[in-house]
Design brief:
The complex is a heterodimer of chains A (197) and B (190).
Chain A: H1 29-37, H2 41-63, H3 66-83, H4 93-115, H5 129-142, H6 146-157, H7 162-169, H8 173-196
Chain B: H1 3-19, H2 28-38, H3 52-85, H4 91-107, E1 113-119, H5 121-127, E2 142-147, H6 151-168, E3 173-180, E4 186-189
Parallel strand pairs in B: 2-3
Antiparallel strand pairs in B: 1-3, 2-4
Helix pairs in contact in B: 3-4
């Protein structure tokens, strides 16, 4: 079983020399981040467009709340804009921004715990088997602790490598690996329980 | 972990992969960019190489030492030219000390200086006793350079003399008194 799963998404290209005719869409994340650090808003917008779906997915699956996920991503990007001149070129922009949003997601969960707002339970009735499976999957994912959920989302849904996930989640790669394994075990057991019903 | 367990995990991983990313709300990026554009970036602070601070400190020190050494030299040369040029009718000689003084004034912006109006001739003569006293053409003011250490005393004496002269109606001159790095008082025309 491979730990890293690459998704066929419009990924950041490796950093390369700018030849003067490069379009923003073709520029590497790090080049765009460098431009953004000098106040280039269109370059930053390109990064926003490039990462919004993956960051939203990450935040949504970790917080289990659409409004929280939206806030996390929005605030995460704004924090990134404010701090982008401190972004070092030797790190990857992707892991840097993931880490910002993951922290916001954990903060949102903590805040919700403190305010004890009840989560809205959404029950969807469907006769579609595939859709049913998907709902079960998301339900199983939601039973995990946030840190375990984040490991599953980062590696299995967003497609980060173990090292990238470790950097994004701010834990050692070994911790990600063990969390991922235990999370999958728990989810598999959960799904078995659903099927047995 | 059993083989079944591994299969379950593989299947799960595949299902999650198929789940894929959720599309962000369409208004998310525009909202972010509205914030970003409303909050223009400050110019990035450039990090200076580590040698720049010590080099700058050394430069300041050297400039300070050089400035102090020039201070003494400028005072002496001005004093010399003032004494040599005097206030004879020869215009170049009259202007020379004034020019030198102006330059000196720039360099010595911190040096004390004041203007005392209506100083009677004898008081001026008393102050410039050690210097050769030459009288300025009509309507010109005097420049009296004194050692910095005596500036306060001399100024006070000139003020007192001017006050007395004013009370008795004795005519007087306007004198610009300046503390300079000179060994003895120097009197020139402005």
């Amino acid at each position: 079983m491979s730990d890293a799963v690459a998704l066929t998404l419009p990924y950041a290209r490796p950093a390369g020399a700018y030849d003067g005719s490069m379009r923003l869409q073709d520029a590497s994340d790090e080049w765009l981040a460098g431009r953004a650090a000098r106040g280039d808003a269109p370059a930053f917008e390109q990064l926003v467009l490039r990462y919004q779906d993956r960051l939203y997915t990450l935040a949504l699956r970790v917080t289990l709340s659409e409004p929280d996920a939206r806030d996390c991503v929005q605030e995460g990007f704004i924090s990134a804009w404010r701090a982008i001149d401190r972004f070092r070129g030797d790190a990857r922009f992707s892991t840097w921004i993931y880490r910002i949003v993951v922290r916001k997601a954990y903060d949102a969960i903590d805040k919700r715990k403190r305010t004890a707002e009840p989560m809205e339970e959404i029950v969807v009735a469907t006769t579609d088997r595939a859709a049913d499976d998907r709902l079960d999957l998301i339900a199983a994912l939601s039973t995990l602790d946030p840190e375990f959920r984040a490991a599953v989302v980062a590696c299995d849904i967003v497609g980060m490598s173990m090292d990238e996930a470790a950097e994004a989640l701010g834990v050692p790669a070994g911790t990600v690996k063990s969390r991922l394994s235990r999370a999958r075990e728990r989810m598999a057991a959960e799904l078995e329980g659903h099927r047995a019903l | 972990v059993s083989e079944n367990g591994d299969n379950d995990q593989d299947r799960l991983s595949r299902l999650l992969r198929e789940e894929g990313p959720v599309q962000a709300p369409p208004d998310l990026a525009p909202k972010v960019m509205r914030h970003v554009r409303a909050e223009p970036r400050r110019a990035p602070r450039r990090r200076l190489p580590s040698f720049v601070a010590p080099a700058a400190a050394a430069l300041v020190l050297i400039a300070g030492v050089y400035g102090l050494s020039r201070l003494g030299t400028a005072g002496q040369s001005s004093a010399g030219s003032g004494a040599a040029g005097g206030v004879s009718a020869a215009a170049p000689n009259v202007q020379a000390p004034a020019t030198s003084h102006a330059n000196g004034g720039d360099k010595l912006a911190h040096a004390p200086s004041t203007i005392v109006r209506g100083v009677p001739q004898d008081a001026l003569r008393h102050q410039a006793l050690s210097a050769s006293l030459r009288f300025c053409p009509a309507n010109r003011t005097y420049n009296l350079w004194v050692p910095v250490a005596t500036f306060d005393t001399v100024t006070q004496q000139l003020f007192e003399a001017a006050k007395t002269a004013s009370a008795t109606g004795t005519p007087g001159f306007d004198v610009r008194v300046a503390g300079r790095a000179v060994a003895r008082p120097t009197l020139t025309c402005r």
